[in-house]
Amino acid sequence: MRYVKELSNRNKIISEHTCEALYEQQNDAYTIKFVFNGTEDCELNKRRFCIYPDTFAVVNAGTNFSSKIDSINPVNTFSVSFGENFIKDFHHTVSSSNEGLLDGKDVKSTPVFTESLYPFAGDMRFNVLHLKNQLDKGLKDEMLINEYLYHCLLNYYKIYDREVVQKLDKLSFIKTKTREEVLKRLTLAKEYMSSNYNQNITLEDIAAQACLSVNHLLRTFKEAYEISPYQFLMQLRLNRAKGLLQTTGYSLNEIVALVGFECPSSFIRLFKNTFNITPLKYRKSRLN
After folding, report:
1. Closest CA to 152 of 49, 13, 26
2. Tens digits of per-residue pLDDT, 179-232?
């Protein structure tokens, strides 16, 4: 089932519930893509990654983008695309001074998003899920829908500041261009771990994806994110295990294998040390 809603200002929302889909296109608008359950495999300018329910992807207008869904269980995807005037006006509003907004002299520039995966949590998650729920109930009011899309962009800019701007400031390189290039490569490392978290990946694999040496990866990753790649990967596996415990009927042993752990006992110990509760007690508490 595929639902498309295009507003009069060229903003567009696409919601799909399917086991199988394949799209290849040049993205014609600024787009944010979400997955509420399952996985969507994507390729962006020859770069491959997966969108899971705890992440969202941002794609610029004009980018070559393809996506694929191939699943036994239906995958629920949701994307919002922004009309050119809407995104320019929003960017102008958040990047200009109050004086510039009042005198109307500032030029409305076209923003360039950092195309990557971002964490889907907090206000962004609340806003998007609420919009999806309202649309499922038949919401047709364009003014209200545009308010939701405004808040979607506002939340993205806040996430961008936290995930990009603040991380740049933490890197110790003097030149701005060097910091930007290093963070871009660290982003590739995070994307690779997020998309292959359940595989037996090594530091060498991650470093190769980021075009960094192992030692350079370890030093700069810790500078930017304040944890090591290994700690990031363990957190990722544990959080996705929580999601499976909450939303599926898989056995504990199945979940252990699905998230990339080899030993159930070590998984249980690490889960309890991290969340102060055992996996089965966590599942029971969420069901209650």
Report:
1. 13
2. 999 999 999 999 999 999 999 999 999 999 999 999 999 999 999 999 999 999
Please state, in angstroms and rounded to a whole number, the distance separating the CA atoms of residues 77 and 120: 13
Assign a CATH topology to domain 171-226: Arc Repressor Mutant, subunit A (1.10.10)
C-alpha span between 165 and 57 (Å, rounded) = 17
pTM: 0.92
Q: Which CATH number fits domain 232-287: 3.30.1370.10, 1.10.10.60, 3.40.50.720, 1.10.3720.10?
A: 1.10.10.60
Residue among 161, 153, 181 nearest 82 (CA): 153
2-167 and 171-226 share one CATH topology?
A: no
